Amino acid sequence: MVLLKLKLVQRLIICDTAIDFVNHEGVLTFFVVCFVNGQLTDKTTTPNASGSDVVEAVVNLIREACIFPNDKKYLRRLAYVESMDGLEANTYRPNYYGGIWQIDQDMFQQIATAIVLDDAKKMIKQSIGIDWSKVQWVDLAKPLYSGLAAALFTLLKAGKNGIPRGIHYQANFWVNTYRPGHLANVFFTKSNKLETGCKRTNTLDLVFALDSSTSLAPQEFDAAKQFVKYIVDSFEISSDTTQVGVIRFSTTLDGGFNLNAHTSADGLKKAIDGVQYKSGGTHTAEAIEYAINNCFTTTNGARLGSSKILILVTDGRSENRNETLRQAAAAKAKGISIFAIGVSAQVDERELNAVASQPTCTHVQILNSFADLDSLKAEIEQVSCKASEFNLDGHEMGSIVVQYDDINTIKR
């Protein structure tokens, strides 16, 4: 009999499905497991494992460990394009070990010798516990190793330009860097077959807190409103799917609206346009507290069991930093994910990083242009797609103990 204690379990399904473990003994992990002969098996490190659950677990681990945070869905698409998530018959062919992401031996050698990847390899060792200097090509038959190799190879080829956004541009990038001599249409066609969005059964309650303090110019506040509308366009707005609320804050909190105020996209965007700039102090702590005690309540439209996200749009220079961090911690404890968006040339990134949920590489962004927000939209969708880590009343689930000595023994 073995006892395994975990901090949070997002979902647990027996055999061929997924379980997520977060922050186990200080190391971020995200596993797909299966009970085999009474033992708990991590399918992300099981040779020749395949399937969409395995791929998505690997991609999420890599993203949340901040190894490859803003890949614009490229790594997920790449797994399907290369091997249909490992389900193509020749994925694990004799004497070939490239795995789900089909990393050829010469590609693996480029990764092994590239000095520019040293920092990424250090991060892999620190966050996932894999010493890349000891990895062999044969190890890539394990999905996690194949995915990491694909991420490293892509980082090597993308360089400072990063991953292009959009399937068309990624198809050309794939031909130029990953599969020279192939047709871009192969990537394009297969990527379109892949369902990039999730089938969300849970609802999404999304609240924007807009800073209109004196330290922000009126045009920066207008840019913040345009940002809100840009994000809103990514979601279906209705009382049954996604609801959006807005808080406008400076010295006072007013001029916004609750989650249940607008149930259509057109009405919502008109209401966003109507939120007026009002200069004053930067009372960020009060804005977060208001979101907790007013916006995310059933009285004002929040729904039990919904994914709850607060997007703080600010320059990050609050009047009371300690109180701001205290309120942010209180929000997270109630199951509210916080994204922090910087909208000023004088933004305080340290405060944004302290306020935002982890990992900050996917929850903090400086607003330079709307074209840079594709990764943020994808991350919001990802958070809303995840199984809830909290009870319906918004309280965090406690640690659990999974005890197993046969296939049917699971105890909380």
TrEMBL record:
**Per the record, a Pfam family?**
VWA
The UniProt entry, under Gene3D superfamilies, shows: von Willebrand factor, type A domain
Cellular-component GO terms for this entry: extracellular region
Q: What's this protein's name? A: VWFA domain-containing protein
- Compartments (UniProt record): Secreted
* Keywords annotated in UniProt: Glycoprotein, Repeat, Secreted, Signal
Q: Is the keyword rRNA-binding in the record?
A: no
Tell me which residues make up the VWFA domain: 205-380
Q: Which domain of life is it from?
A: Eukaryota
